[in-house]
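User: For documentation purposes, I need each entry recorded in a consistent format: the amino acid sequence on its own, followed directly by the corresponding structure tokens. There are two entries in this batch. Please keep commentary to a minimum and don't merge the entries.

Assistant: Recorded as requested. Entry 1:
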Amino acid sequence: MTSDHSPAPALTPVTGRCFGDGDALYEAYHDTEWGQPVHGEAALLERIALEGFQSGLSWLTVLRKREAFREVFHGFDPARVAAMTPDDVDRLLTDARIIRNRAKIEATVANARAVLALHDAGETLDALFWSFAPTPRRPRPTTFADMPSTTPESVALAKTLKKRGFRFFGPTTAYAAMQACGLVNDHLTTCPVVTGQR
């Protein structure tokens, strides 16, 4: 018979993720967001923007600055971001909490304006983005070497968004966004998300 005060059984740490082991923020992102379907104009604008800011950097760097990005870009509300001015851009270039890259900041504003242009044309970013979701790939990748950096769908998505006025969103960035937003699910065969340990 055990006491009411007996210690809870120790939890077995989860390891073997595709990425993120050893950093709580990164682990949470991997376990609960990456590869999960993302819908909505603000949510997709955020992912497009952050994937652009990540270019040339580690994703963990971006993830650690995510809340600051959300603050300075008004929760990625397309109308509010589209209304940002050159003075706002200059102000953000002095904000050490985010990645201070003029081209990427200006691209985020331009991309928000492109979202509004889609709305004016009777479209949504959500519907357009998801129209490029491929047929699920089988078999599931066993290593990152099995994953492509681009696919025909990511090339087509990048090309389409460029024609619609989006910036800083080439085929490689497009595929990373497709992975992050659940258009493809590239968790490795041995990943705890796949094996049910998460």
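Entry 2:
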Amino acid sequence: MSTKEQKERVELLQGTLDLLILRTLLLGPAHGHAIAKAIEFNSDDVLQVEQGSLYPALHRLIKRGWIAVEAGISENNRRAKFYRLTAKGRRQLAVETSKWDKLAGAIARILRSAEREGES
């Protein structure tokens, strides 16, 4: 990855990674590497999830009962832990998505207000 591409990546707000993991697992069970790659791919490579952030987030979500883990075999025939969304996690995904929508809307209103003030 070039230096320019690295500069264009976006830091995630605290809690956002949890939301992205839950949303990714809505599509079905996945191992850690596949979750990180799905987030990267679906964000057009703007978001990159480092292992040092991903695995603590996965453990936090397991502890909260939002995801469960089971052993399985990855697509390259290796043992892996597969994470899946629980019923509690599905409910929490709806809550977190609503919170995100409110936050994004509030930020957009502030930015639009600042643009209008700059035009005066």
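Summary note for entry 2:
The two ends are 41 Å apart (CA to CA).
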